[in-house]
Specification:
By secondary structure, this protein is of the alpha+beta class. Helices cover 46% and strands 24% of the residues. It folds into three domains: 54 residues; 53 residues; 102 residues, Lipocalin, CATH 2.40.128. A hairpin with a 4-residue loop joins strand 2 and strand 3. The protein is flat.
C-alpha cells in the first residue's frame, strides 16, 4: 500500500502527521492504528534481531559461564562467612526488611490520593447491610451522611459532621455527638478513598476501614 511505502521513505514526517492530526481530531487516531501497529511490529523485529546478533555467539556464552563461576565462588564465600558469624546474616536480613518497608511506604506516599485538588466529593460507602452516602464539602468544611439499613428499610437517617482537617492525603472528620465519649477516642478519616473508623474500646478499639466509591467529585 502507498501509505506504508510513504512511511518507509519518510518515517519522521509520518509520525509528525499522525501526532498533529490526532491532536486536532482524536477520532482520526482510529485511521492510523494499522500504520502504528505496522511500525511497532517492524521496530520490535529490528530490536530482536539486534539482540540475537549481539548475544548469539561463542564470546557471549563464554562470558556468561565465567559470570556463573564467579557468582558460585562469591556465594560459597558468603555461606562460609555466615556460618562463622550468623550476626552478619541477621543484619543483612534486617536491612533488607527495612529497605522493603521503606520502598513500600515511598510507593504508598507517592501514589496517595491528593485531596487538595478537590473541593467537593460524594462517596458511596455502602455495605451489604447498609446503604450509606457521604458528601464532603471543602468550602463549608462539612460532611453530610445519608444512611439506610436493612433493619429499617425505607427509613433514611441524615447527619452532619464537621470536617476537622482537609489535607493533601487525608480528610479528618469529627465524631458524631453520640460517639463523643471514652469508647471512641479518635476521629475517623478518609484516606485513599477508604473511610477509617475505630471500633469500640470494649472490643479492643481496633481500626477498621470501609471501601468507598466516588460518585461525584469536583
Amino acid at each position: 500500500m502507498k501509505i506504508f511505502d510513504f512511511y518507509h521513505k519518510k518515517k519522521a514526517l509520518s509520525w509528525l502527521i499522525i501526532v498533529i492530526t490526532s491532536i486536532i481530531e482524536p477520532t482520526l487516531l482510529i485511521l492510523w492504528i494499522p500504520l502504528i501497529t505496522y511500525a511497532l511490529v517492524k521496530k520490535k523485529d529490528l530490536f530482536i534481531s539486534k539482540i540475537d546478533k549481539k548475544y548469539n555467539n561463542k564470546e557471549w556464552d563464554k562470558k556468561m559461564k565465567n559470570l556463573d563461576k564467579n557468582w558460585d565462588v562469591k556465594l560459597k564465600k558468603i555461606e562460609k562467612d555466615w556460618k562463622k558469624n550468623p550476626k552478619k546474616a541477621l543484619l543483612l536480613m534486617a536491612g533488607v526488611f527495612v529497605g522493603i518497608i521503606f520502598i513500600y511506604e515511598f510507593i504508598i506516599y507517592a501514589t496517595a490520593k491528593n485531596y487538595n485538588k478537590l473541593s467537593y466529593i460524594e462517596y458511596d460507602c455502602s455495605t451489604k447491610k447498609t446503604t450509606l452516602f457521604r458528601s464532603l464539602d471543602k468550602d463549608k468544611m462539612k460532611m453530610y451522611n445519608s444512611v439506610e439499613t436493612d433493619q429499617f428499610p425505607g427509613k433514611v437517617t441524615r447527619t452532619t459532621q464537621q470536617i476537622i482537617d482537609w489535607k493533601g492525603n487525608k480528610i479528618s472528620v469529627e465524631l458524631l455527638p453520640s460517639a463523643r465519649n471514652a469508647f471512641y477516642p479518635h476521629e475517623p478519616y478518609f484516606k485513599n478513598d477508604k473511610f477509617y473508623q475505630q471500633g469500640l474500646k470494649a472490643f479492643g478499639g481496633d481500626w477498621f476501614s470501609t471501601d468507598c466509591k466516588i460518585i461525584e467529585q469536583r
